[in-house]
Structure formats: structure tokens, C-alpha cells
């Protein structure tokens, strides 16, 4: 429980839950750069993510929780569509404190 998941900077990011849309659709926000890629520019990008069935009725997500998302890419290399990613990890408060102490999370 103390372990913090390692991120693949190419297609994963830390995100904060903004709104819940139904049972398995979650709106999240991630830090963005001026080029639109996840980074440290200070801006926030909102997108919809899918909550996999393995988390359903086992873990409860509410607004303000932090998660790790993996961006999905279509076969043609674009990320068009409403669902832009999948939640891979739900961060516990002690994991979030550790990330903030190490300076990995901007919020």
C-alpha cells in the first residue's frame, strides 16, 4: 500500500477526479504544457476516463481523489473521441503525501 506506481511518461499521468459520470466514466484533470502534452506548465487539461470493472464496488472514487491514468490511442495514432484514457491505479492518501514530499505531484 505504501508503494507508489511508476509512471511511463509517454502515456501515463497523475490526475485529479473532477466529476463522476455514471458508474464507470470519470472526468479527470491533468497538468498540461503549452504544447498540450502532460507536464509542468501550470495549465490543466480535462478529459474523460474509463474506470475498469476490476475497481467497481471494490474501490470508491469521489471528487478530489487522485488516480493514475493511462491514455488510450486509436489504431491510427490519434486520441480522438470522448474517452481519452483508463484509470490504472487509485492513489491512497499516504501515497499522495509521499508524492507531494518528493515533488512529483503539482497539486
Structural account:
The chain has 107 residues and is mainly beta. The protein has one domain: Nucleic acid-binding proteins (OB fold (Dihydrolipoamide Acetyltransferase, E2P)). It has one helix at residues 93-102, and strands spanning 12-21, 25-32, 43-50, 66-71, 83-90. Strands 1-2-3-5-4 form a 5-stranded mixed beta barrel. The longest helix has 10 residues, at 93-102. It is globular, with a radius of gyration of 13 Å. It starts with 11 loop residues before the first strand and ends in a 5-residue tail after the last helix.
Summarize the structure in short:
The protein is mostly beta strands and 107 residues long. 9% of the residues lie in helices and 37% in strands. Mean pLDDT is 80; it is low at 33-41.
Please report the first level of CATH classification, the CATH class.
Mainly Beta
Broad shape: globular
CATH-derived architecture? Beta Barrel
For the biggest sheet, the summary is: 5 strands, mixed, barrel
Major sheet: arrangement of strands:
1-2-3-5-4
Low-confidence stretches: 33-41
What is the count of DSSP helices, taking H or I runs of 4+ residues? 1
- Tell me, rounded to a whole number, the average pLDDT: 80
- CATH topological fold name: OB fold (Dihydrolipoamide Acetyltransferase, E2P)
* Residues in helix, %: under 10%
Q: N-to-C SSE series?
A: EEEEEH
Helix-strand category = mainly beta
CATH superfamily: Nucleic acid-binding proteins
Number of domains: 1
Number of DSSP strand runs: 5
β-sheet strand percentage: 35-45%
Measured distance between first and last alpha carbons:
21 Å
* Rg measurement, Å: 13 Å
Amino acid at each position: 500500500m505504501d508503494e507508489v506506481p511508476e509512471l511511463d511518461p509517454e502515456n501515463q499521468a497523475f490526475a485529479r477526479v473532477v466529476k463522476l459520470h455514471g458508474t464507470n466514466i470519470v472526468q479527470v484533470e491533468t497538468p498540461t504544457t503549452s504544447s498540450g502534452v502532460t507536464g509542468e506548465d501550470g495549465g490543466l487539461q480535462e478529459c474523460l476516463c474509463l474506470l475498469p470493472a476490476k475497481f467497481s464496488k471494490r474501490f470508491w472514487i469521489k471528487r478530489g481523489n487522485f488516480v493514475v491514468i493511462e491514455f488510450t490511442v486509436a489504431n491510427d495514432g490519434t486520441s480522438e473521441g470522448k474517452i481519452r484514457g483508463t484509470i490504472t491505479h487509485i492513489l491512497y492518501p499516504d501515497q499522495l503525501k509521499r508524492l507531494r514530499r518528493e515533488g512529483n505531484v503539482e497539486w
